Amino acid sequence: MSWRLFHRLPLLIMACLASSTAQAAVIEVDLQQAMQAGGEVQFIVQFADQLDLSSFPGKGRGKGVQLASMIWALRNQADASQADAVELLKGRGARRLIKLWSINALAATAGPDVVQALAALPGVRNIKLDGTLSAPSAQPAAAAAPEWNLNTIRATELWNAGYDGSGTVVANMDTGVDADHPDLALSWRDGANSWFDPNGEHSTPYDTTGHGTQTMSLMVGGDAGGSSIGVSPGAQWIAVKIFNDAGVASLSGIHQGFQWLLDPDGNPATNDVPDVVNNSWGFPELVGQCYTEFDSDISVLKAAGIAVVFSGGNQGTLGSVSPGDNPESFAVGSVDASLNIASTSSRGPSACDGSFFPEVVAPGVSVRTADLTFGGVFPNSYASVSGTSFAAPHVAGTMALLRQASPATTVTELEQALADSALDLGLAGPDDEYGYGLIDAVAANDVLASAPGSVCTDFDSDGFFAEAGCGSEVDCSDFDAAINPAACDIKRDGIDQNCDGRDRRRGQACPATGGEPVIPAEGKRRTCSDGIDNDLDGLIDCLDPGCSNNKSCAVR
After folding, report:
1. CATH topology for the 19-130 domain
2. Phi/psi at 260 (nearest 5 deg)?
3. In the predicted model, what is the mean pLDDT of the chain?
């Protein structure tokens, strides 16, 4: 050994130890433990670069150019931040490579050596185990008087005033939805941009256990069974089946669900996002602990103008439950017909920031819902259930009513109106049982109606308002949905489709969608056997319908 190498050896050892320590700090403990087995692990890589969402404040419905700009910024940031990691993963044989561009993360399956190599890359903030969550189950309850819950929050009074949710879209992330139920069949928006199963098990709406059907019916259900069950029966619904048929959801699958809601059809130029998404799930095993895995998802959706509602949990006095207690969430507790807090409804304070918890309460004891029809065999199928899972949809449905009445209302304004108008229960002022109190749909609408604001009209429903200050660029033709600031201007046709004051004379032809092409196709060349979600629809290789005719997916 040379003299120079001998004296440099301690420095080399220290450098190696420092590098190893730095990598260990990036790899979270749960993943380190899983890696000790030596086989492949499923993990999520989070990158340090995060988009400043303050540049994209959500402005109610019709996000238009603002939403498209935010989606493009998120995609471009992810592409730039993740390039080295994607190249490494492809070169090292990683599988199940899923881009989570909405939060600048990616999910993959690979061996421990690949995880170690990723941890050494600059810009990687942390790498965690892609854990799982079990689906919630309904708590059967004794039947109560029909519609007591709807009357209690005064939703029926808003219907009489002309607001039933028409023109709005609600979503849930749950066990799925039974679209064969007569109270739900006609209100499904229909199409590829209205259903998403990140597990690739069902290409059309399906529900294994009924939990998602029950929560959805409380938002948009009709009166096919003889009495009304949904708060916003005029609204349309879309859904994400985050739980597979075995009742398990992966963290990456939930992230994919939130991401899909930002751009259901894969074209940012179109206005197909929901007004509100209901989440009747949480992590009860972490009761009293702050779990922030989905903070970024919630923030991005709210910046896009999508309200995010969570059930508060059924852990009673044991404490708050995440993600409902995350600062950006809007959590809902449960009361009975006498307006008493349910014994199981989780109490605060929030484990995340010490504030009171939940925000508000709604009916969640013995409420009537739609239930599984088993393919339409039992159409007259209903259930009486209890839990905060069923209190939360009352709030989400009410938000849809309020959005119909005040389309330009921001998420913050929706939340504030419900809080300011709530019927105070329990201790005076907000508390850790009832929050601000019981929601009141009429009072909340009065709050929004009395607030100064712009007149906002969108006659052609293209997501662009005819007036300034309504959350979109001004629509130059509010009676033609093909003409708006996000449209592709057809060359030399004498019409200014994109509202820039001139008819385009040069450039490429417009795509069939009328907007800018946004994602590569799945099914071209080797994209059906590369283990990558190339078109960012959450489905990989032969699970993707785009690969149905590819030779590599042929049945042998």
Report:
1. Alpha-Beta Plaits (3.30.70)
2. -60, -40
3. 89
